Amino acid sequence: MIEDLILAKYNYWIYVTLMMIGFYAVIAKKNLVKKVIGLNIFSTAIFLFYISIGDVIGGTEPIYIHGEHVVYVNPIPHVLILTGIVVSVSITAVALALIIKIYEEFGTIEEDQILELQS
Amino acid sequence: METIITIKPLLAVLIPLICAVLIIFSSKHPNIRDGWSVAAGVVLFLTVLSMLPDILAGSVIQFTVIEMLPNLPIKFKVDAFGELFGLTSSFLWIFTTFYSIGYMRSLKEHAQTRYFFCFSIAIVGAIGIAFSANLFTLFLFYEVLTVSTYPLVIHNETPEAMSGGRKYLLYLMTAGIFLFFSVAAVYYYTGTTDFAFNGILDGHGIPVVMLKILFITFMIGSAKAAFMPLHSWLPSAMVAPTPVSALLHAVAVVKAGVFTATRVILYVFGVDLMGETGIGLMMAYFVCITIIVASFYAMTHDNLKKRLAYSTVSQLSYIVLGVSMLTPDGITGGMLHIPYHAFMKITLFMCAGAIIVTAKMENISEMKGIGRKMPITMLAFTVGAMGMAGAPPVAGFVSKWFLLLGSVELNQLPILIVLLASALLNVAYFFPVIYTAFFQKPDKELTFGEASPFMLVPLTLTAIGSLILGIWPDAPYLFLELVNVAVQNVTTGGI
Amino acid sequence: MIWSLDIAMLFFLVVAALAAISVKDLLSAVIILSLYSLIMAIVWVELRAVDVAFTEASVGAGITTVLFIFALVRTTGRSED
Amino acid sequence: MKEEDVIIRTVIRLIVPFIQIFGLYVIFHGGSGPGGGFQGGVILAASMILYVMAFGVTGGRRKLTEKTNMIMRSTGVLIFSGIGLLAILFGGKYLDYGAVPLPFIHHAAEVRALLIDGGVEVGIGITVMAVMVTIFLEFYPGGTSDD
Amino acid sequence: MIFDNAPALVVIFPLIAAITVPIIGYYNKRLIPYYVTLVIFCSFIFSISNLRTVMQTGSISYTMGGWEPPFGIEYAIDYLNGFVSIVVIFIIFIVSIYAKKSVEQELPGRTINFYTVFLLLTAGLQGLIVTGDLFNVYVFLEISSIAAYALVSVGKSRDALMASMNYLIIGTVSASFILLGIGYLYMVTGTLNMADLADRLPLAFDERPKVVLAAFAFFLVGFSIKVGLFPLHTWMPDAYSLAPSAVSAMLASTFTKVAAYVMIRVMFTIFKPDFIISTVHAHTILAWLAAIAIIAGSVLAIAQTDFKRMLAYSSVSQIGYIILGVALMNQIAMTGGVIHIMNHGIMKAALFMVAGAIIYKTGIRNINDFKGIGKTMPYTSAAFTLVALSMIGIPPTVGFVSKWYLALGAIEAGMWVFVGVIMLSSLLNIVYFWRVFENMYFYRAEGGKVDEVPLSMLLPILILAALTFLLGVLALYPLKEIMAPMVQIILPG
Question: Taking the domains of chain C in order of start, what are their residue ranges?
Answer without folding.
Answer: 3-74
